[in-house]
Design brief:
Largest sheet: 5 strands, parallel
Distance between the termini: 51 Å
Low-confidence stretches: none
Number of helices: 17
Number of strands: 12
Strand order of the largest sheet: 1-5-4-2-3
Shape: elongated
Radius of gyration: 25 Å
Mean pLDDT: 91
CATH class of the largest domain: Alpha Beta
Strand content: 5-15%
Number of domains: 2
CATH topology of the largest domain: Rossmann fold
Length: 336
């Protein structure tokens, strides 16, 4: 049974199980979201085949590939049948070359139709970067730390708005405490893939809501082309009362182990001042989280104000508090 070669747009639109045949380390670094890793070659095999290719050429590399996978193919065949239920599979490797075509050939021997990504994962990455460079109608939701931006984004999404939740995709809330209660962060490359998967489903003629961020969200970097657009986009800025922000932070981190909070304070102790940091840690130890939050807001508010002062002031739209959701939607539509 022959495989079909599809360009990246057709490949992504097609509904079928998605198989990444690259090595485990390649897959771990980043992959097309939703893909299952069925490596044709594990990392050691890939190294051996690559070395043979470099030293002896393609024909000898093919022979080496056949040799190292001889005992591996029956297991791969079982996994292909299990994943596909004998329905079509989408298959990709790095360049859409030998690995994906070899896996498609194996699938064909089993009677499983397959669709191979022309140009492989490399083409997918190129399309992702082209998407980041597209002109998006971004509207940025700002506000000091503890303003409740994430909750507002969730409400906007529930109201049918296009929302790009960068912190959710990065598994990090952006501050030194942002990793607490979160899963492991993706690599920057995979973070970009997750962003692309959201953006490619959006209508570029409609506003896209995004939270105000620095270029890094934890260890993940926002794509430069997208970040530059965020910096030039209109910014909705609600002035939420300090006491309310501290209360929200105390509630948000109330279930986190005190030692984890203390460790996070230690990371910014020099910037807080060692005496101030010690006082905040004592507050955390005694359970005075509201008081600790208010003291931390002194630090975060000053840092945030510096960033806001660097933005074009005519693009900052200040409100005494959050407008209701319908007003926010109307405001966004007026910006473009």
């Amino acid at each position: 049974m022959k495989s079909r070669l599809l360009d990246v747009e057709a490949f992504l639109k097609y509904s079928a199980p998605l198989i990444d045949v690259r090595s485990p380390s390649e897959f771990k670094r980043a992959h097309i979201p939703g893909a299952i890793n069925l490596p044709l070659l594990d990392d050691e095999m890939r190294h051996a085949v690559g070395l043979t290719y470099a030293c002896k050429g393609r024909q000898e590399a093919v022979r080496e590939g056949l040799r190292v996978t001889a005992n591996w193919l029956p297991l791969l065949a079982e996994k292909l049948e299990e994943v596909s239920s004998l329905q079509a599979l989408r298959i990709y490797c790095w360049r859409g070359g030998m690995r994906s075509n070899a896996m498609a050939f194996l699938a064909g021997l089993l009677g499983i139709p397959s669709l191979v990504l022309d140009g492989g994962y490399k083409t997918y990455r190129r399309m992702a970067h082209e998407t980041f460079q597209m002109p998006w109608k971004l509207v940025v939701l700002g506000g000091m730390t503890g303003s409740g931006k994430t909750e507002r984004l969730q409400e906007l999404r529930a109201a049918g708005q296009q929302v790009l939740d960068l912190e959710g995709l990065a598994s990090h809330k952006g501050s030194v405490f942002g990793h607490l209660g979160q899963g492991a962060q993706p690599t920057t490359e995979h973070f970009e893939n997750l962003i692309f998967e959201i953006l490619r489903q959006f209508d570029s003629s409609r506003p896209v809501w995004v939270e105000d961020e620095s270029i890094t969200v934890g260890r993940c970097f926002i794509p430069r082309a997208l970040f530059d657009q965020m910096q030039r986009a209109p910014l909705l800025w609600p002035e939420v009362k300090r006491r309310e922000r501290a209360r929200r932070l105390a509630r948000e981190y109330g279930n986190v182990a005190p030692q984890e909070l203390i460790d996070a304070v230690d990371r910014i102790a020099r910037r807080l001042g060692l005496q101030r940091a010690s006082q905040i840690k004592d507050m955390i130890t005694s359970g005075a989280l509201m008081e600790a939050a208010e003291n931390l807001l002194d630090y975060y508010d000053k840092a945030y104000q510096i960033c806001i002062n660097r933005r074009a002031q005519d693009l900052i739209f200040r409100f005494s508090d959050y407008p209701d959701i319908n007003q926010m939607i109307a405001w966004a539509e007026q910006q473009y």
